[in-house]
Amino acid sequence: MSAQGNAQPIIIKRKKVSGGDGHHGGAWKVAYADFVTAMMAFFMLMWLLNATTEKQRKGIADYFSPTIPINRISGGGDGNFGGDSVFSEMTLPQNGTGATSARPTESRQARGEMGRTAEGDKTAAQDQTFTSLEAQLLGQGGESKVMENAFKHIVTRITDEGLVIEVFSLPDAPLFDPDTDRPTNLLRALATLIVDTSQTVTNAVAIGGHVEAQPIVLADSTIWSRSLDHAMAMRKLMEGAGLEEERIERVTGHADREPSVRNPMAIRNNRLEIVLLRE
After folding, report:
1. What is the tens place of the pLDDT at every residue in 137-171?
2. pLDDT tens digits for 165-221?
3. Domain ranges for the chain
4. Where are the alpha helices (DSSP H) in the chain?
5. Dihedral sign, CA of 69, 75, 78, 83?
6. pTM, whole model, 2 decimals?
7. Residue 230: count of CB within 10 angstroms of its CB
8. What is the assigned CATH class of domain 119-277?
9. Nearest to 152 by CA among 138, 132, 162
10. β-sheet with 271-277: strand ranges across
């Protein structure tokens, strides 16, 4: 009992160890963020040096200079109320490298804009003329009951080739007598209507004939010759109605190769296409 009473007490010390010293905590993240920011600023500086003119670079430098009054939208220019900003639409996109005043076309292309050209203006003028012709054709179609019925056989559209005037047969009103190239009175009226409309312009004219497919395969198919005969008959009708012969650019037969409806044997495929060609 005395030996146990004189024994030295055992003291246990618990030491707390804090982690993170091996990786220096999160300080490296801050340093990396600063590095990325500095690199971004560096590349932006390189881009500005390459994409701006000397005058614009001076404006940028003056913008960040504390020795001059700074306007909220100023770029250091000499315009009214502090000048134009170098980031405005009228300054930077028009005059940067590859977009100089001496090379405005390349400037627009660098921004993904094609701009208006002489060829584009000419195309727009042609489209406007064709639209006016369409409206004129529609107006003439309602002048009388006969012309109103005839107008049901006309479809127009503007394409890259020109103004296409499509004249087609209907089950109860064909353009030609069956299996011949003799035009009906309906087609004669339509030819006169088209010529009267086309006399307001000087565009060349192309005429194409289309026919419906035949139900059986014949040893000597007539669809090619019949489509060409229809086109030639339309040419003669238009010339007889007053169209100058010199304006006829071409007359072609397409047989049944370009049907306008799903059924190749439908009467709707029996049609003529008169194209006022672009100049």
Report:
1. 766 544 444 466 777 888 899 999 999 999 999 99
2. 999 999 999 999 988 899 999 999 999 989 998 998 999 999 999 999 987 776 778
3. 24-110, 119-277
4. 2-5, 27-51, 54-63, 92-95, 104-110, 118-141, 145-151, 185-198, 223-240
5. negative
6. 0.56
7. 25
8. alpha beta
9. 138
10. 154-158, 162-168, 271-277, 205-210, 248-253
